[in-house]
Please model this.
Amino acid sequence: MKKHLLWLSVAVVVLVAAMHKEVSEITNPAKPVEKSISFAVYKGSNYASDVYNSTSAQVHITIEKVSAKSRTTVWEKTFDAQSLKQYPSLQNAMSQTVKVPNVFDSKEHLEVTYTLTYNSKGSELQMQNETVVSNDTHSSKLYIGI
Model:
């Protein structure tokens, strides 16, 4: 009999603890945070050779807020096409910081997708890359080498 009472007591304690956690999540919902993402767009190679004279590149960046149920674009920008030689070095990179408010770390994350479109005498090549912004940090930096 004592064994049954002991197990029953343990079960009641576990049940009460679980109910307390659910009630506290309802009464104290997670607070949204602001995430900051910085971009640095730069020339990743020395394009001094004449073969690059008629080659340009364009960069398109999209930030999406992703949850289990939805995917929402929160920011999007296209950097105009310019000659590969005109892009700055890493030390002088074109940079921009985007602040995304109201991100619930426990339910959402940010995904950054960027597409590089190279054009050489009318022939185009597109390269796409994607990265997930970590939920354990409020600030991230993304380097995009052309």
Remarks:
- Residues 2-27 form the longest helix (26 residues).
- The chain has two domains: 1-29, 33-145.
- Helices lie at 2-27.
- The first strand starts at residue 33 and ends at 42.
